[in-house]
């Protein structure tokens, strides 16, 4: 049934112009997307590709280490423009699919091990409506997300249903405000036997584009969350939260850019911006430093990205942990279309009252791309990945995980996979 709903959605957007003569005259339908998919095998028995992630780490290094098919298809259209005032209205949508790389026809029955579909975005934007350069929006969207590409770590991601206004010129920068709402399944049954929902309203303020130095800009973020529940729910909490974000972007560094982010989260959003936990303690805290460098010198065949992450999780009760991650992916182009990459990644998780977990991973890959450069896509890859971990990492891994004794490598604390993958965005 999920598949049957996708085609009407696409057709509705594509035919939006039929509602008025101006629609078809304004702009064509925009089609964007992302995909990754491949095939792989592990060294022990030739089974399916195994992927390596440390328990407690917020991400894993991606190259030769993604065991799923994932795709996003985005359709958008400017559906109205007022020729007199210049006002424009736009509709955007995004459908995502994720599946294990197990067989040629995926089951969409709802089984967690099978393919899953989701409507990730569906929102409307209005601009040139008498508010200067400001834009107003409402709906469900990826909201001004920031990530590190080589380990797919979205360190600032407040996405979901909401509404807001952005691009307000305040002189020193651009101000944005978003009202975000999460309705959370508490996961806990109250004394009346009902599974109550807890509402979490969020108020996200951002001031971006603050000039600090030539090529450098600062972004400041303040995020308030307020949780509420009905009076009949006497078991679940309604914890609020707050977060502060400071991010500096420096363009033109070795032909690329450098990003430094400092973050502090407390209460219901100590664990996640997009998925707040109203049952958290109000004094739960998380501190994070993210440093990412992407280089691509003009005229050079070398490019790449490096990252360093330090994150401390400090629960009000119980043990916390410190996650440290260092990774590097240099690439070299032999010709315009052929190249190679070597990705090195190291993750360490130090729980307060347990042994330190460690995971090191290295991938060598042969690349086929449309052009030279780190961001050139689509890209075809032939890879070999080797990982090594310690006994503490093995003991903390989940059942069936590649690092676990119940995984494909058994009692070993190392493993290797080979495979091929395609990645594209457009």
From TrEMBL:
<keyword id="KW-0406">Ion transport</keyword>
<keyword id="KW-0998">Cell outer membrane</keyword>
<dbReference type="InterPro" id="IPR036998">
    <property type="entry name" value="Porin_LamB_sf"/>
</dbReference>
<protein>
    <submittedName>
        <fullName>Porin LamB type</fullName>
    </submittedName>
</protein>
<dbReference type="GO" id="GO:0046930">
    <property type="term" value="C:pore complex"/>
</dbReference>
<keyword id="KW-0732">Signal</keyword>
<keyword id="KW-0813">Transport</keyword>
<dbReference type="InterPro" id="IPR050286">
    <property type="entry name" value="G_neg_Bact_CarbUptk_Porin"/>
</dbReference>
<keyword id="KW-1134">Transmembrane beta strand</keyword>
<dbReference type="GO" id="GO:0006811">
    <property type="term" value="P:monoatomic ion transport"/>
</dbReference>
<keyword id="KW-0472">Membrane</keyword>
<dbReference type="GO" id="GO:0015774">
    <property type="term" value="P:polysaccharide transport"/>
</dbReference>
<dbReference type="GO" id="GO:0015144">
    <property type="term" value="F:carbohydrate transmembrane transporter activity"/>
</dbReference>
<keyword id="KW-0812">Transmembrane</keyword>
<dbReference type="GO" id="GO:0015288">
    <property type="term" value="F:porin activity"/>
</dbReference>
<comment type="similarity">
    <text>Belongs to the porin LamB (TC 1.B.3) family.</text>
</comment>
<feature type="signal peptide">
    <location>
        <begin position="1"/>
        <end position="24"/>
    </location>
</feature>
<dbReference type="GO" id="GO:0009279">
    <property type="term" value="C:cell outer membrane"/>
</dbReference>
<dbReference type="Pfam" id="PF02264">
    <property type="entry name" value="LamB"/>
</dbReference>
<keyword id="KW-0626">Porin</keyword>
<dbReference type="InterPro" id="IPR003192">
    <property type="entry name" value="Porin_LamB"/>
</dbReference>
């Amino acid at each position: 049934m999920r598949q049957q709903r996708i085609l009407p959605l696409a057709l509705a957007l594509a035919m939006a112009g039929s509602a008025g003569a101006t629609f078809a005259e304004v702009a064509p339908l925009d089609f964007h997307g992302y995909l990754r998919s491949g095939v792989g095998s592990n060294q022990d028995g030739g089974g399916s590709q195994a992927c390596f992630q440390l328990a407690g780490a917020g991400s894993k290094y991606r190259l030769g280490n993604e065991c799923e098919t994932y795709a996003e298809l985005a359709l958008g259209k400017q559906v109205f423009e007022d020729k007199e005032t210049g006002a424009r209205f736009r509709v955007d949508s995004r459908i995502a699919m994720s599946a294990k790389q197990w067989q040629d026809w995926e089951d969409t029955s709802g089984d967690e091990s099978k393919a899953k579909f989701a409507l990730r975005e569906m929102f409307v934007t209005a601009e040139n409506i008498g508010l200067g350069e400001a834009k107003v929006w409402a709906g469900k969207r990826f909201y001004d997300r920031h990530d590190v590409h080589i380990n797919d770590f979205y360190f600032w991601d407040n996405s979901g249903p909401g509404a807001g206004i952005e691009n307000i010129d305040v002189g020193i920068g651009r101000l944005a405000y978003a009202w975000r709402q999460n309705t959370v399944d508490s996961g806990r049954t109250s004394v009346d036997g009902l599974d109550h929902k807890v509402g979490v309203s969020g108020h996200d303020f951002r001031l971006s584009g603050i000039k600090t130095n030539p090529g450098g800009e600062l972004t400041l973020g303040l995020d308030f969350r307020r949780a509420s529940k009905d009076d009949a729910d006497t078991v679940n909490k309604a914890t609020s939260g707050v977060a502060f974000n400071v991010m500096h972007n420096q363009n033109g560094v070795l032909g690329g850019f450098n990003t430094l982010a400092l973050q502090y989260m407390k209460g219901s959003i100590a664990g996640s911006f997009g998925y707040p936990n109203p049952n958290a303690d109000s004094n739960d805290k998380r501190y994070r430093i993210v440093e990412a460098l992407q280089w691509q010198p003009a005229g050079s065949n070398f490019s790449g990205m490096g990252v360093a992450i330090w994150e401390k999780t400090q629960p009000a009760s119980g043990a916390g942990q410190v996650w440290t991650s260092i990774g590097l992916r240099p690439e070299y182009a032999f010709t315009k279309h052929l190249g190679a990459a070597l990705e090195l990644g190291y993750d360490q998780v130090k729980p307060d009252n347990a042994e330190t977990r460690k995971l090191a991973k290295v991938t060598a890959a042969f690349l086929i791309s449309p052009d030279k450069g780190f961001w050139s896509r689509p890209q075809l890859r032939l890879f070999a990945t080797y990982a090594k971990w310690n006994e503490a990492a093995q003991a903390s891994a989940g059942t069936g995980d590649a690092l676990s004794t119940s995984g494909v490598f058994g009692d070993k604390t190392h493993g290797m996979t080979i495979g091929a993958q395609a990645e594209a965005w457009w």
